[in-house]
Amino acid sequence: MKRRLFAWLLVAICTSAAFGCGSGNSPQSSLAGLGPGSAIQAGQGRVTLTVIWPDRSRLIPFASNSIRANLTAGSTVVASQLLARPTTGNTSTAAFDNVSPGDLVLSATAYPNTDGTGIAQAKGNSPVTVSAGFTSTVSVTMGSTITQITLSPSNPTVEVGKIALLVATAKDAGGNVVLMSLQKLKWESSNTFRATVDSSGIVTGVAASSGITAPHIIVTDTESGKSATATVTVTGPIIVYDNDFESGTVDSAWSTVAVGTANPLHVEATPTNNRHFLGQLLQQKAILTLNSLPTHGHVTVSFDLFLIRTWDGDGGEPPGSTQWGPDIFQLQVANGPTLLNSSFSNWYGNLFPDSATQSYPNAFPAGINPAQTGAAEKNTLGYTFLTQFGDRDLDSVYHFSFTFIHNSSSVELDFNGLQNEFMNESWGLDNVQVSVSN
User: Fold this and answer.
1) What's the average model confidence in pLDDT over 29-51?
2) CA–CA separation, 433 vs 420, rounded Å?
3) Distance of alpha carbon 27 from its chain centroid, rounded?
4) Is residue 415 scored above 80 in pLDDT?
């Protein structure tokens, strides 16, 4: 079905002075040179044109602000009127005086500017028969001049979590750009689980997809009914390392350097739930080295940090002394930033109140926070310690994720245990994942 887009142009046609048709409100001069209200010459008629402007909607292009109406006989323009969208109300009226009887054509063209300039947005015409002694009403249905809509870029690429802007452009049959209202554009995604789009054409990547799984973004001009489609490739971070240590082995990407007392790199299982992890490690640095990285601009590292038994946080007795601390854990990028440098305490409650505070989530030495602040798990691994209240579970698990700028083909990540003691304070790593992205 052909979409009907624009306003009815109501045309009252009077012929013969005997019927005395009125000219309507706010008429404009005709090309015939006689203003409305002038006496109609013998044998002539009057054509009165009234445009009912509805609210800005699909009936008249939202961006249109004037209509040029022409009466033609063959290729000759008999009369022409320009009707601007009224500033108040919704009616514009023009009168064509002293129109000779005969078969004419009434044509109407909508423009974006009030002076009838710009690229035509809609057109329509209707035959008019001027007969003596009769009044006729003629309607003109205008159709959009838009023949195509294009999207730029036509096949964008966007990363997961990032955005890209699509721009819609409308053109007529001659390739001219036709002004349209952004409010009349309808944006849709064929798969919102892969990519979404908002009412401004901003696309957000949701999940990696390409080829036959790539989502399509469709924009439709609701006034002309024309639409365009762009295929979006969504790229996700490239995982370059992933290890949950459930294999029970340490791969060749790892090495260690002793800072104090150290253990060989090994994998063990927690007493509770048999969770395999890299550790227990002591006063040492566990180094993860990755080479031959794909081209990238950022690196993201995520991991679970196991802190086992008597980590003393900021100090000891009295608080702030170095008798039992500080017990610090660091993550550094070789030749790059320090991502984590905080003290941690497992002395929760009143087990050891003089050394119960830690700097995390602040960087050491700032911050005085309760033990195990920010821990994802508290005392779940099954490691115990004999306290003044008897054996107590004493461990914590922290989930970390850091992203930093990096574009080299290799990266070295240094996980560094800087605890004050080694007999009762150890640590480990689990679920270590490294990815690169642009």
Assistant:
1) 52
2) 28
3) 49
4) yes
